[in-house]
UniProtKB/TrEMBL annotation:
Coiled-coil residue windows: none
TM helices/strands, residue ranges: 20-41, 190-210, 231-253, 265-286, 298-317, 353-373
Annotated source species: Cohnella silvisoli
Pfam family, one: ABC2_membrane_3
Keywords: Cell membrane, Membrane, Transmembrane, Transmembrane helix, Transport
Bilayer topology annotation: Multi-pass membrane protein
Protein known as: ABC transporter permease
Locations listed in the record: Cell membrane
Residues covered by the ABC transmembrane type-2 domain: 153-378
Family affiliation: Belongs to the ABC-2 integral membrane protein family.
Major localization listed first in the record, in broad terms: membrane
Length: 384
């Protein structure tokens, strides 16, 4: 009986072309769009105009060093166009402008304690773009200061070893990456949108349950010997399989197209299964709780979109305020995304994602219990 109900749902879903667009086409489009946009943004260089009023070998060497160390593409402009560049920044059409004033070489070589000022014009909203560039300028200024100190010590008769000891940094930084593989935008986007669109299956479940109720199909079930458990399990099984196929397609797409490293495949399979159980379990509960399609869509949008933001599907949870990070622990999306990244980035196996699996299982069980409790009321409200 359960399998017959599931087969009936599969046949209906195959006839609805829009279902495949929402469950497969749309998430693939999102993965391609955001993967490409953020991938290009992270690898492309920012062009930053400059005006060199000094025109000396020292200023040219300085600008070359800035470009090499910062990764920015520096674009030369004439001093006559300085006001035009500033106007562009003021109008929001430009990002920044670096001015090397006349006398730069003389100030660097003379070093009389009266430093010359470089001018960095910037647009008010470009802090995140300009901050790395400003940091490079400050590091170079420190480098020139150290050179000045070194020359002064040399003139005072200090040996090379003594000068190096004085100028030695009090600490050094050793960058040690502990993840099994490096983090990149794909390890955020592919599992993130896979998790997000799993919960969109709730929309299809809502339409089917409410459609059956309005058409009288649900009312006719009251005259049969079918138990509530059989009906719910049959409907649940059909969408569970659909969700499993959805996750498999999206993760395979990420692996083949973007070379996403999946990690332990057994752990991935168990996680995908539990995620599908959780998503469809919540779908059963919402389908039994809501009274109309509009109400159901509102709940679903709140769950999918709100959960995507709070659960760290669009950007890492670590970037959020502490309070939001705490709230995120109450969303299934957080635990699913955490488990995916534990497997893909940190190289953990099934034993390392037990907590995430347990949370997803509890939420799925609660969803099924709510659906069973509300099923009789759902039948009473059906049209006969």
């Amino acid at each position: 009986m359960i399998l017959n109900i599931a087969k009936k749902e599969w046949k209906l879903l195959l006839k609805e072309k829009g279902t495949f667009f929402w469950l497969l086409g749309m998430p693939i489009m999102f993965i391609v769009l955001f993967g490409s946009v953020f991938g290009i943004a992270s690898s492309s260089s920012v062009t930053l105009p400059y005006i060199d009023m000094d025109h000396t070998p020292t200023s040219q060497s300085f600008l070359k060093t800035v470009g090499d160390k910062s990764g920015y593409k520096l674009e030369a402009h004439q001093s006559e166009g300085m006001q035009d560049q500033i106007d562009k920044i003021r109008d929001g059409k430009g990002t920044a402008l670096l001015i090397i004033p006349q006398g730069f070489e003389q100030s660097v070589k003379k070093g009389d304690g009266n430093p010359i000022s470089l001018e960095l014009y910037r647009e008010a909203t470009s802090d995140s773009v300009i901050a790395p560039f400003r940091a490079v300028l400050e590091n170079l200024a420190n480098g020139y200061r150290e050179t000045k100190i070194n020359n002064a010590l040399a003139e005072s008769g200090q040996t090379k070893e003594a000068r190096e000891q004085v100028l030695a940094a009090p600490f050094t930084i050793k960058d040690r990456m502990e993840n099994g593989s490096g983090y990149n935008v794909i390890t955020q986007v592919v599992p993130g949108y896979t998790v997000m669109f799993v919960f969109f299956v709730i929309i299809s479940m809502l339409k089917r349950f409410l459609g059956d109720k309005e058409s009288g199909m649900t009312a006719r079930l009251r005259s049969t010997r079918m138990s509530p458990m059989s009906y719910l399990l049959g409907m649940w099984l059909s969408y569970l399989v659909i969700t499993l196929i959805q996750c498999t397609v999206l993760l395979t797409f990420g692996h083949l197209v973007y070379d996403l490293q999946l990690g332990d495949l057994f752990a991935i399979c168990v996680l995908v299964f539990m995620l599908a159980v959780c998503g469809t379990g919540i779908g059963l509960a919402i389908s039994m709780l809501v009274r109309s399609d509009n109400q159901g869509m509102a709940f679903t949008q709140l769950l999918t979109m709100g959960g995507a933001v709070l659960g760290g599907l669009w950007f890492p949870v670590d970037l959020m305020p502490k309070t939001i990070q705490t709230i995120s622990h109450f969303t299934p999306q957080y635990w699913a995304q955490k488990a995916f990244q534990d497997i893909m980035l940190r190289g953990v196996h099934i034993s390392g994602i037990v907590n995430s699996l347990l949370v997803l299982a509890i939420i799925a069980a609660l969803g099924l219990i709510v659906a069973l409790v509300r099923y009789k009321r759902f039948l009473r409200t059906a049209l006969g």
